[in-house]
């Protein structure tokens, strides 16, 4: 669905991503994990033409996306839920949903808003409240609902679980998985909560310092002890205990 | 930023050729004016160039080097003009036993007093010189004071707010001077004693070189200032005040110093202006002439470069003068429908600002990105490093 | 009504519109629009041209004022503001560009005044607009009509911003341009509309102000510091703060000068510009975020509710 080829991008003159290659298969949940500052958010911003793309190609369903102005991307069916500033705090919940569905016709917007309040009953309760008065988890729900308003073909999610209480974060993860399963949406998800994300994900990429260090099945990355402990803070759940070689190779290969 | 030897030289070469080209255009225009209108026009232009170079250089210090949007430049100019209008004349009057209090500025007294002072000045070049120096010193002091006063509220404001506050303060001083009769006679202008009186009809011939010398002295002073540690501080402040603060730079102190020095220099310009015109008419000291035109001069010339400032002032002053002189010949079609072509001066001013912003934001003479250390030291450091690695 | 009150009300309504115009443009595009000075003057001359050449009352020409003001704004947007915004120019540069535009407009206004004088035997350089007004309840009609028009304008604006799709999109873009873009909102259109509204408001403000002051080609240049003072007093947070700020500045100038002149004598008149500037400085000391930083809504609610509510989630 989405292919990133040899992407070099950053902010202003500062380069963050180096020769990045990513493939996001259709109807799957692709997870991007990695330590802070790796460039995960920059990747999403590059796709949305918010960051500065120096060179490389981004193809969406075969069509080039590089340089397409941000507000046209919603028309193409790409929905972006940023980590911060993902709701309009000074607008009501209803207005937020309406804004998210800006490209839709009036009846479509009303229908979809109805639908969202069914899926997220919490929103129905607060429908006329200012979004800024909602709690963290409620805002995330609203942000996801806003992402869904556009009937997206591709959703870009940026660290949805950050700052959420574990129970709420878990609920968010469950919703994301449901979106892939029940609604058939292709999802590209950047996550800090690596373990859980890898558990629900299909494909995974490990991003370190602007480069890909691992690409493959999400499940398999969980079984890479050195990568997991070095970059993801995951204590080895399965695999061997004890000392192992800390040689970092590009391909995932198990050490015994 | 250490630039590669050859690209640095190429850059310099480009700039030099630009400067030479602009100078050639200026000389050509001056020649044209001389042959069509005579020497007096040239002298007027030259005097205006010196005065406004001084004022614009002061603006360059504050806005070009220190990054403070000084939209109230007229305030310091007024301070200098008022100081020269109000004080030196009174001192001379007191010295000569003439009325020197509040009545000095009243319209009935002043126009009789000043010619008497002028006769004294005309008699002795020593007294005239002393008077001139006294005027300059008083102007600078009064400018410094105004600069300091303005810096107090403005020092912590940002960009747009700062610019507008400075504009408002400048206006305020103009209204004060216009209404407070005691200082400079309010709406009736006060005459200024003339230290060049002894040259009679050749007055302007002498004013030109004298003012030029003053302008060049200021130029040299500012050059030294901007190459000193203080100058580096100014540029650090302009380019990134947050990290300058983190590096221990006292922003408030540096900004205040820049404002005070800038105001003092602008005030000298104001003082010279009233000496040249012979009277202080507060209503004529407008933000258009003394804030906005200097900004246009500076932007065209090149923010951060005093040579650029000089070129900008010269070029635009010539263009303005040409509009005034040739208004009936070139713009006769306007006059036929009753429109006075003099308004085109404003159009020129607005157009220059817009064209520079849109198409040549660095001006004619862009500021070269000067390394923080003199190039000799950098070369030495590089050479030492090379020696070590071998 | 005391004489200063009716003039003050007229003048303040006009100043309020111009301050609101400056505020709107600043919060949407980060541009301090200096050209409001000439846009206001243009508003005056549109009305003047109307009543002198075609007769009638000033009020019937207000639609033209709005249209021409909007066009002036649109030209500034496409010619200057948009290319500079695209280049991510600094605030000072944005402001300077509007200064350049204002000076060109000023030269055109001056030339137009010359043109009127020569070809129509008029005196457009010192105009007392109130002569073209009619009387209502013993006062100039403007004192009643203008505040009503201003309030009507505000109500339409409020409706636009809160109940229409594009109006809400404008507020969204102001708050979070990135998210708005990602939602499919075209920020270019938002900027364009804000220039249209601002241009119209600025010109209408000038048309209002001239009913209580002498109309000259430089009336905008003369009062621009007050317009900025009104906007800054309002806090540059939302458009209503700007309007309120402009109202306060206008009223304090009139009331202040009148009261001080009574107290200290007519020499005070020369310093009238200083009074509102002083008020602005004093207010900013106490409320650094200006009037829009004062949560009026909450204060009123608490007064009537009589009890403190606990912090909501």
Tell me what you see in this structure:
The complex is a heterotrimer of chains A (256), B (390) and C (313). Helix content of chain A is 37%, strand content 25%. With 256 residues, chain A is an alpha/beta fold. Chain A has one domain: Rossmann fold, CATH 3.40.50. A six-stranded mixed beta sheet of chain A has the order 6-7-8-3-9-10, sandwiched between helices. A four-stranded antiparallel beta sheet of chain A has the order 2-1-4-5, with helices on one face. In chain A, helix 3 packs parallel to helix 6 (136-149). Residues 237-256 of chain A have low confidence and may be disordered. Chain B is 76% helix and 1% strand. Chain B has 18 helices and two strands. The longest helix of chain B is centred in the first third of the chain and has 33 residues, at 5-37. With 313 residues, chain C is an all-alpha fold. Chain C has a domain at 3-221. In chain C, helix 3 (62-86) crosses helix 8 (187-209), helix 5 (142-163) packs across helix 6 (165-175) and helix 6 (165-175) packs across helix 8. The longest helix of chain C is centred in the middle third of the chain and has 30 residues, at 91-120. Chains in contact: A-C, B-C. At the B-C interface, helix 7, helix 13 and helix 17 of B face helix 3, helix 4, helix 9 and helix 11 of C.
Quick recap of the structure?
The complex is a heterotrimer of chains A (256), B (390) and C (313). Chain A is an alpha/beta fold and 256 residues long.
List the main descriptive attributes of the protein structure presented here.
heterotrimer, A: 256 residues, alpha/beta, Rossmann fold, six-stranded mixed sheet, four-stranded antiparallel sheet, 10 strands, disordered C terminus, C: 313 residues, mainly alpha, two-stranded antiparallel ribbon, 12 helices, globular
Kindly state the percentage of residues in helix of chain C: over 70%
Helices and strands of chain C, in order, run as HHHHEEHHHHHHHH
Strand proportion of chain C, as a percent range, falls in under 5%
Just give the CATH class of chain A: Alpha Beta
Query: Largest sheet of chain A, if any?
Result: 6 strands, mixed
Specify the helix fraction band of chain A: 25-40%
Work out the number of β strands of chain A: 10
How would a textbook summarize the main sheet of chain C?
2 strands, antiparallel
Most extensive protein-chain contact, per-chain counts = B-C, 37 and 41 residues
Rg over alpha carbons of chain A: 19 Å
Oligomeric organization of the protein chains: heterotrimer
Order of secondary-structure elements of chain A? EEEHEEHEHHHHEHEHEEHH
Tell me the strand order in the biggest sheet of chain C.
Answer: 1-2
Shape, principal axes of CA atoms of chain C: globular
Q: Could you say what the CATH topology of chain A is called? A: Rossmann fold
- Computed structural class of chain A: alpha/beta
Note the gap between the termini of chain A.
37 Å
């Amino acid at each position: 669905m989405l292919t990133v080829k040899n992407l070099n991008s950053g902010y202003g003159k500062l380069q963050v991503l180096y020769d990045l290659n990513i493939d996001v298969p259709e109807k799957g949940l692709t997870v991007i994990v990695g330590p802070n500052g790796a460039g995960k958010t920059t990747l999403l911003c590059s796709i949305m033409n918010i960051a500065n793309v120096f060179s490389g190609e981004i193809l969406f369903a075969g069509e080039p996306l590089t340089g397409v102005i941000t507000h046209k991307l919603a028309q193409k069916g790409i929905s972006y839920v940023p980590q911060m500033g993902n709701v309009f705090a000074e607008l009501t919940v209803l207005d937020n949903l309406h804004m998210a569905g800006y490209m839709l016709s009036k009846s479509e917007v009303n229908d979809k808003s109805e639908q969202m309040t069914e899926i997220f009953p919490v929103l129905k309760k607060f429908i006329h409240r200012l979004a800024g008065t909602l709690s963290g988890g409620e805002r995330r729900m609203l942000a996801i609902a806003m992402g869904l308003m556009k009937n997206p073909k591709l959703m870009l999610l940026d660290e949805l679980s950050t700052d959420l209480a574990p129970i709420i974060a878990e609920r968010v993860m469950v919703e994301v998985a449901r979106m892939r399963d029940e609604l058939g949406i292709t999802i590209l998800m950047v996550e800090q909560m690596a373990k859980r994300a890898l558990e629900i994900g299909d494909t995974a990429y490990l991003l370190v310092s602007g480069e890909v260090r691992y690409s493959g099945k999400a499940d398999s990355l969980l079984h890479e002890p050195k990568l997991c402990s070095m970059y993801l803070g995951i204590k080895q759940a399965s695999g061997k205990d004890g000392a192992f070689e800390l040689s970092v190779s590009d391909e995932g290969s198990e050490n015994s | 930023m250490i630039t590669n030897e050859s690209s640095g030289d190429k850059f310099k070469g480009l700039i030099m050729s630009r400067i030479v080209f602009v100078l050639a255009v200026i000389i050509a225009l001056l020649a044209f004016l001389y042959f069509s209108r005579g020497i007096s026009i040239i002298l007027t232009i030259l005097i205006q160039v010196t005065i406004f170079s001084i004022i614009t250089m002061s603006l360059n210090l504050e806005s070009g080097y220190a990054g403070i949007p000084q939209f109230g430049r007229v305030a310091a100019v007024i301070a200098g003009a008022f100081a020269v209008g109000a004080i030196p004349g009174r001192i001379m009057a007191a010295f000569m036993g003439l009325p020197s209090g509040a009545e000095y500025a009243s319209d009935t007294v002043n126009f009789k007093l000043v010619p008497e002072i002028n006769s004294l000045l005309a008699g002795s070049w020593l007294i005239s010189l002393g008077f001139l120096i006294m005027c300059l010193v008083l102007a600078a002091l009064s400018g410094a004071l105004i600069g300091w006063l303005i810096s107090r509220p403005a020092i912590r404001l940002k960009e747009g707010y700062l610019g507008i506050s400075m504009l408002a303060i400048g206006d305020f001083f103009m209204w004060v001077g216009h209404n407070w009769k005691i200082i400079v006679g309010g709406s009736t202008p006060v005459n200024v004693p003339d230290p060049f009186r002894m040259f009679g009809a050749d007055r302007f011939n002498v004013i030109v070189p004298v003012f030029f010398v003053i302008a060049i002295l200021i130029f040299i002073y500012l050059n030294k200032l901007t190459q000193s540690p203080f100058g580096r501080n100014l540029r650090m402040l302009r380019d990134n005040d947050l990290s300058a603060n983190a590096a221990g730079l006292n922003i408030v102190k540096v900004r205040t110093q820049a404002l005070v020095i800038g105001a003092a220099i602008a005030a000298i310009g104001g003082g010279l202006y009233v000496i040249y015109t012979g009277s202080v008419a507060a209503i004529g000291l407008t933000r258009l002439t003394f804030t906005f035109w200097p900004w246009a001069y500076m932007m065209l010339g090149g923010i951060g470069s005093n040579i650029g400032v000089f070129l900008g002032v010269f070029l635009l002053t010539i263009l303005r003068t040409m509009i005034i002189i040739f208004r009936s010949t070139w713009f006769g079609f306007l006059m036929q429908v009753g429109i006075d072509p003099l308004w085109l001066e404003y159009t020129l001013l607005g157009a220059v600002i817009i064209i520079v912003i849109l198409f040549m934001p660095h001006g004619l003479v862009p500021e070269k990105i000067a390394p923080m250390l003199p190039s000799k030291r950098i070369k030495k450091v590089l050479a030492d490093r090379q020696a070590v690695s071998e | 009504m005391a004489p200063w009150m009716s003039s003050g009300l007229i003048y303040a309504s006009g100043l309020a519109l111009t301050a609101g115009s400056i505020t709107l443009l600043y919060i949407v595009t980060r541009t301090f629009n200096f050209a409001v000075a000439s846009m206001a003057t243009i508003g005056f001359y549109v009305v003047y041209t109307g009543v002198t050449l075609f007769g009638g009352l000033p009020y019937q020409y207000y639609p033209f004022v709005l249209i021409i003001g909007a066009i002036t704004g649109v030209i500034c947007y496409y010619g200057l503001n948009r290319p500079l915004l695209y280049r991510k120019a600094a605030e000072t540069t944005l402001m300077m560009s509007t200064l350049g535009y204002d000076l060109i407009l000023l030269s055109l206004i001056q030339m137009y005044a010359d043109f009127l004088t020569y070809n129509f035997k008029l005196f457009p350089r010192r105009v007392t607009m109130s002569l073209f007004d009619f009387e209502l309840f013993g006062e100039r009609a403007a004192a009643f009509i203008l505040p009503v028009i201003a309030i009507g304008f505000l109500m339409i604006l409020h409706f636009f911003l809160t109940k229409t799709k594009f109006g809400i999109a404008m507020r969204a873009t102001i708050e979070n341009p990135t998210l708005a873009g990602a939602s499919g909102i075209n920020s270019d259109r938002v900027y364009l509309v804000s220039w249209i509204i601002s241009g119209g408001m600025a010109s209408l403000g000038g048309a209002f102000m001239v009913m209580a002051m002498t109309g000259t080609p430089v009336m905008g240049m003369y009062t621009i510091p007050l317009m900025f003072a009104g906007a800054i007093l309002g806090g540059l947070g939302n458009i209503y703060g700007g309007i309120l700020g402009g109202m306060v500045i206008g009223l304090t100038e009139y009331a202040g000068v009148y009261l001080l002149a009574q107290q200290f004598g007519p020499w005070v008149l020369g310093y009238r510009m200083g009074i509102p500037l002083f008020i602005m400085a004093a207010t900013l000391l106490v409320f650094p975020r200006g009037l829009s930083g004062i949560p009026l809504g909450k204060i009123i609610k608490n007064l009537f509710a009589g009890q403190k509510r606990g912090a909501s989630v």
